[in-house]
Amino acid sequence: MTSTKKGIIFILDGLGDRPNRKLEGKTPLEFADTPNMDRLAANGQCGLMDPLLPGLPVDTHTGVGILFGLPPKHATELCRGPIEAAGIGLPMEEGDLLFRTNLAAVKKQDSGYQVLDRRAQRINEEIHTLCQSLQDIEVGNNILASLYPATQHRCVLRLRGPDLSEQISDTDPGGKDISQGIQSCTPLTNNDRKAKNTADAINSFTDISHRILDEHPLNQARQSKGKLPGNGVLTRGVGFYRDQTNLIGHLKLQAGVVAGESTILGLGQLFGFTCATEKTFTSLTDTDIDLKLRRAKELLQNHDLVYVHLKGTDTAAHDRDPALKAQFIHLFDNALGRAEFGDVVTGICADHSTDSIRGEHNGDSVPILIHHNSSRIDRAVRYNETDCNQGALLRLTAQSFLLTMLDAMGQLGNFKPSSKAYFS
Q1: Is 363 found in the same domain as 260?
Q2: At which of 184, 219, 240 does a domain end?
Q3: Which one of 16, 202, 262, 329 is CB 3.0 to 4.6 Å from 87, fit for a cystine?
Q4: Can you give the CATH number for the domain in which 410 is found?
């Protein structure tokens, strides 16, 4: 009988980056002091990983979804709304339509809504109260809209009612050009009554929610203190709830997730993983890394594979702060040096690269390493983009990285045609 080992995968969100003048021409990972990850790299195997396809930028839910065992074909069909809803434990009924949303700072104009800040200065503690004012809002055609708080400025919008459709456009202009303002929601298919009804409902909610939020005492208080109000809702990632199956479940492995980001917790919930989170687990660089690693160690006692997700690297890059990104990497490395996981297969990777210069995801590959006591050893001696380019793992897809981890754990047998659906 093949002996098996347990595994742990650290996902440093948006870890990959490009050389930055502010860091002596180095990437944040190259600039950071990382003796513990370097030790693992020097005694294991390194390489580069493409989350989906070389050169193609992906969102967090796509990159992490594949690392969680979802076939790439299915990962491209994942909708962010239901994932966010699952992440906050929102009860969902068949037919509910879910959206990932931002609570934004907007200004009403004759032509629509000007977006001042898509994140309302990362509004946080007030969103629970603000969302309470937007429950069971009638938006036409017997459709009710309700907004629920997620992480920081992010919320989940649920539409409940007859004849809903996910064939509609986003109202979020995205981060590249907020000068476009809130977009009007439109049907994506012609002569589709359900899509038109749903788009009309979203446009109605945009107007109603702005009136309620703009007059809310909390936003009035924010503005009196010189802060931007959270007075607009931007929608994207629309979708109905669907069951998800993946390779981890197919292999009948018990998996756990340690995270503070609702997207990651939502994916874990959808896949049937055990999810561990705490109030001190945030999506910022102030997250409690040591406690995350302790929770991971606890989960390893009765789980085969544990994922630890850290969002701070991505958040710092989106804020165009490469020095903070490097500092957070150093803090993680220090915490890793204090932790003791024993004889487990250890993987370190990212869901995608995030450029600290532009503040956006890009299609660059991400550095990866795999270490275990019987691992082959390559010539890479540091864990960073440059050294990993010389590693024995070469350039893998995210699915192949997961397969390599599972093989090192002794959890894979020879390929069988009955498993082909999990590799498409």
Answers
A1: yes
A2: 240
A3: 262
A4: 3.40.720.10
Strand partners, 307: 9, 257
- Side chain identity, residue 65: G
Amino acid at 353: S
Quote the domain boundaries for residue 263.
Answer: 7-78+244-423
Q: Please say whether the beta carbons of 360 and 16 come within 8 A.
A: no
Structure tokens belonging to residue 49: 């990983």
Check residue 337 and give its pLDDT.
96
The whole-angstrom separation of Cα 27 and Cα 23 is 7
CB atoms within 10 A of CB 189: 11
Question: Are 359 and 282 found together in one domain?
Answer: yes
* Last residue of one domain, picked from the residues 209, 240, 271: 240
Token couple for 217: 């005492």
Number of neighbours of residue 220 by Cβ within 10 angstroms: 12
What single-letter DSSP state applies at residue 75? Answer: H
Classify 414 as helix, strand or coil. coil
Are residues 72 and 96 part of one domain? no
* Cross-strand partners of 240: 97
Q: For the segment 212-223, what is each residue's pLDDT rounded down to a tens digit?
A: 999 999 999 999
- Which residue's structure tokens are 């796509």? 62
Mean pLDDT of the chain: 93
Is residue 83 included in any domain, yes or no? Answer: no
pLDDT in tens, 298-341: 999 999 999 999 999 999 999 999 999 999 999 999 999 999 89
Same domain, 29 and 111: no
Same domain, yes or no: 24 and 102: no
Tokens of 58: 């992906």
216 within some domain: yes
Q: What is the pTM of this model?
A: 0.79
Identify the three-state secondary structure at position 129: helix
Per-position b or e across 383-413, b if 16+ CB within 10 A of its CB: bbbebbeebebeebbbbbbbbbbbebbebbe
What is the Cα–Cα distance from 228 to 250, expressed in whole angstroms?
Answer: 48
For residues 155 and 97, what is the distance between their CA atoms, to the nearest angstrom? 14
pLDDT digits (tens, 9 = 90+) for 5-33: 999 999 999 999 999 999 999 999 999 99
Phi, psi of 66 (to 5 degrees): -70, -40
Residues 214 and 273 in one domain: no
* DSSP element (H, E) containing 149: strand 144-149
Q: What are phi and psi of 44, to 5 degrees?
A: -145, -150
Residue 54 to residue 398: CA distance in whole angstroms: 11
Same domain, 326 and 410: yes
Query: Are 177 and 276 within one domain?
Result: no
